[in-house]
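User: Before I run my own analysis I want an independent prediction to cross-check against. Here's the chain; please return only the structure tokens and, at the end, one sentence I can use as a sanity check.
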Amino acid sequence: MALLNSVVSWVMKKRIHQIELFMKYPHEVQSEWLRKLLNVARNTEWGKKYGFKSLTTPEQFQQRVPINDYETIKSEINRLRKGEQNILWPSEIKWFAKSSGTTDDKSKFIPVSQEALEECHFKGGKDLLSIYCNNQPETKLFDGKAIAMGGSHQIMEVNNELYYQGDLSAILIQNLPGWVEFLRTPNLSIALMDEWESKIEMMAQATIQHDVTNISGVPSWTLLLFKRILEMTSKKNLLEVWPNFELFIHGGVNFSPYQEQFYQLLPSSKINYLETYNASEGFFGIQDRRKADDMLLMLDYGIYYEFIPVDKLSSDNPQCLSLWDVDLQTNYAIVITTNAGLWRYLIGDTIQFTSLSPYRIKITGRTKNFINAFGEELIVDNAEKAIAIACARCNATITEFTAAPVYLEGSKKGAHEWFIEFATPPSDLSFFSSILDTALKSLNSDYESKRYHGMLLEEPRIRLLPPGTFYRWLKSKNKLGGQHKVPRLSNDRKYVEEILELLVQN
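Assistant: Structure tokens:
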């Protein structure tokens, strides 16, 4: 294993030179990828419809091809799922990443081409290891086993041909090269189970037998595994089970609300935490600096990027910017064109640029995950930072939270109602609410103005939830698993009313 560790680390580091090239020449790399994508897809149904052969510049591309979301291309995706090909992309599409984005009832099925698997998702996985090995030259990562908190997939048969749909993580695990299986645990029969409660139990039983050095997954679901392992082994922390553990790779949700719990379960300053931005639609970003709160935008994965300022998103013809036109500290909605046939596709995430040389980003929320019932324009980034501040001041830790508006009614003023499940509750809930309110004011001037003298918005209302409430809510919606997340903010009360109903039933 020591020899394997040395060889793999050396191979990974060779990629660093290529990463440095796109960091140095980002605009040229992006322009070249747009030309490649248009050329490859010129004879597809969409290529002919929009005349890809005659498109030579980003400006022409923007003028001729409309911005799309899932609803506008759902009919084409449904045709692909029925076995038709050469619609959006020329190579055969047999895999579909099932994505809910939030806990909404509807699922999206994102096409995944072989090119997207190899040039984007797998390349991203290798790059995060390359970056980690480059930053941590003494790593022993490959001396032990890796755990991936993956989902499941299903097989469909259409006209005697097999097609697959499921969580992106399951698709990646299923398609990994054989040698990777030697480095990971548990085996595929457990890793791809679709019943999440049994899966946690089986994963815990299987993985405590190995020397695990790293794990990747959504923080909330990873914590479930960690806690079950400690229950089984009667150990105080994870390092008593896996003494050589050194890396947690996380993504999908903001890590800061879970940070303190991980520090308690992995009590060592030598543990590294690495954030990635890997969605069903593509692999977009990797944290390339230790203890940074942003990620390097990966520019050579077969994806061409555009960005819409969030305040222009609702206009009939929103302004769409190329990479070289963006500014720092502006909220943008991401538009992507990919090597799986997503053309000018609005993925629903919002980001800010923290650096323009090289291009680094941080995720700020969702285009549909905010509260703006009173003109306060509260985004997820504001909420998570404020919660972290309140927890730090009150020595509290949370498991999950969501917030929704309380609407104006008669002489009653509006407010935000926060449903919070604490791991360690604050001793004074009123003080916690006050700190949360003050933090939100400091982070969002629109919220501050609506809270002025309590004229429109009252102080946040905190509702403590019993342990396991969010888990039971997700389970009631058949939404257990790594891809499913508790929505941090909602502009209506649909989710919180469901939670309240669940509490009454229990």
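Sanity check: Residues 2-88+303-366 form one domain.
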